Amino acid sequence: MADNFNITVDELDLTILSHLHSDGRKSFSDIARELDVAVNTIRNRVNKMANDGIITFITRISPEKMGFQAYANILIAAESDKVDSITEELLTYPEVSFLSLIMGQFDILLDVMCYDNYHLRNLIMERIRKISGVKRTETLMMIKVLRWDTPDIMANKDHWESVMDPLKTS
After folding, report:
1. Helix, strand, coil percentages, rounded to 5, for the chain
2. Are residue 24 and residue 69 in the same domain, yes or no?
């Protein structure tokens, strides 16, 4: 994968990404027809963005339809020399959908999806809090998810173009 400083994305790439973002199953032929470019252009651009790590292809499963009813953000304060081992452990938990190191009163932020509140309680009390180096946790329950998405890149096109082309002047 290329490093971030050597990756360039132009307006056509952003437009392709926008099409895929709105419908990940949209065919390259349909995108090419709508943008009035060759199908191979779309295929080559998408493959390059995938190879550069700009996009990945995943299937997003509806958590509710699969029985997940309890969502939470969990903040973890950790002993400083244990942060790496704690995150390594958390990465093995199937309930974890997002994991990040953060700054402030807490060191780790994770999003979890559980089947119910009992499952969530068990995850926190019997597993997470028992990991060596976890000092304390704070849980923020999500009572209704209003949006589960990635940012709209076309709405932020000027920003993305300046990030991808550091020599561009304002």
Report:
1. 40, 20, 40
2. no
* pTM of the shown model: 0.71
pLDDT band at 65 (very low <50, low <70, confident <90, very high): confident
Q: Cβ(113)–Cβ(71) under 8 Å?
A: yes
Identify the domain containing residue 100 by its residue range: 64-142
Enumerate the β-bridge partners of residue 113.
Answer: 71
Q: Which amino acid is at 163?
A: V
Are 87 and 116 members of one domain? yes
Q: Is 163 part of a structural domain of the chain?
A: no
Q: Is 148 among the domain residues?
A: no
Q: Are residues 78 and 131 in the same domain?
A: yes
Q: Which amino acid is at 100?
A: S
CB-hemisphere CA count at 13 Å for 115?
A: 6
Q: What is the pLDDT of residues 15-50, one digit of tens each?
A: 999 899 888 899 999 999 999 999 999 999 999 999
DSSP string for residues in 95-163: TEEEEEE--SS-SEEEEEEESSHHHHHHIIIIIITTSTTEEEEEEEEES---------TTTTHHHHHHH
Return the higher-pLDDT residue of 77 and 4: 77
The tokens 């402030």 sit on which residue? 104
- Total count of domains within the chain: 2
The backbone torsions φ and ψ at residue 99, rounded to the nearest 5 degrees and listed phi first, read -145, 130
